[in-house]
Amino acid sequence: MSVKYFMTQKTKNKISLQEVERIAELARIGLTEEEKEKFSEELSAVLEYVEQLKEVDTKNIEPVSQVTGLINVLREDVAEDFDREDRKIIISNFPEEKEGCVKVKQVM
User: What is the pTM of this model?
Assistant: First the structure.
């Protein structure tokens, strides 16, 4: 079912415009008055749908973390040695080098 379906239903607990403004502030996005009203309705419909999902009996349903049946094909991570010439060629292609190793920018 789509959000539009739930928007046509009466929502019990409508999200206020102040709550929408707070969510927008936390997300660092600006909203027009029309967007605030629209998102108030849509977010209320989503929450109403979640409330409806809570009513579904899942006692005899097994938890599922993967539904495709596919498995990862992994290989052992093995370091390979290069001869000195190949190593020099590889390192020469990088902008920076330190103590015979490739130097890269820190990634966080």
Answer: 0.47
Query: Domains in the chain and their CATH numbers?
Result: 3-54 (1.10.20.60)
Rounded to the nearest angstrom, the gap between the alpha carbon of residue 62 and the centroid of all alpha carbons in its chain is 24
- The one-letter amino acid at 6: F
The alpha carbon of residue 37 and the mean position of all alpha carbons in its chain are separated, in whole angstroms, by 26
Q: What is the DSSP letter of 98?
A: E
pLDDT per position as a tens digit, 1-21: 444 544 445 556 789 999 999
Is 103:96 a contact under the CB 8 Å cutoff?
Answer: yes
Number of Cβ atoms within 10 Å of the Cβ of 15: 19
Q: Residue 2: left if φ>0, alpha if ψ -120 to 50, beta else—which one?
A: beta
